[in-house]
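hey can u check if this looks right to u? its 349 residues, i copy pasted from the old doc so theres a chance i mangled smth
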Amino acid sequence: MYILLAILAFGILIAVHELGHFMAAKACGVRVEEFSIGMGPALWKKQKGETLYALRALPIGGYCAMTGEDEAVEDDPRAFTSQRAWKRIVILTAGAAMNFLIGLVLIFLVFSKAEAFTTPVITGFMDGCPYEGADALQVGDEFWSIDGHRIYFSSNVGEYLARGGDTHDITVLRDGKKVTLEGFTMTTREYEGQEGRYYGLHFGVKEASLGARLRYSWYCALDFVRMVYSGLRDLLAGAVGVKDLSGPVGIVSMINDVGQSSESTASALWNIAYFTAFIAINLAVMNLLPLPALDGGRIFFLVVTWIVERISRRKIDPRYEGYVHTAGMVLLLGLMAFVMYNDIARIIQ
């Protein structure tokens, strides 16, 4: 059941992404030749007006094919390349925006069940905690940032303290003003009566009012975005390898694992919704990276082309950009095949 639910969730994310492009294209007066969910052979298709709607066999993608998307169409005011730059940017960013929006909605639905939220406000210290004092941390301090990273939840405190070594630049809100503790040393230690190692801080709890749910839903979405960029930095730095990436097969497997490890069917559905929200926001961020074949790459080329054409006073043939995106798509499909192979190998193992 959870595997089918995972496939459905992944398909919905793809459909929502392409729906964003479709709606923006229609709103901007661009002709959409085909709106497809999935890739490969068509399972179902129907021509309605100027657009062919299709559902295809492989739930690993989808597309919104617009007239003149990769090459100029002469004397066609409804072609994609005939539109002003700002309209093309709106159309290209609409897919990622819809993914981010559905992720935000899912987070809010999950948080609608919450009765309270833990906040990064210090309400007390464990006995013997060395970090309390006039020139240190105090009861009532709210963590604002650690080493430049904004703190949204109490869990962020331990997360960023653990990442940055033993010495940190910590900014807290104290009596409505920001106070910065530069070069402040914080390490975990054992406390009497406690199992494990802690920083020795107690955090507050905030009632889950409608305003709190909205605010913490937004914070959670921003935290997800930050997690994606952190993962990309780790990939570029070599901390993780390409073999650690997951594609559609791996994501479906992870969603299934989330469901199987939950205490009940109800909690499984809520946990899957939360994980799906993270995947949705992950897709939104990844899709806007300035890489060929991705929407972010198209936006990048659009901006560069606009600048070059303004300087040189010469029109650049859109076919050249199409060649780059085609090459990028080939490389992307190769990467997807490699990632899918690794996902299947991990499942078998």
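Residues 2-110+278-348 form one domain.
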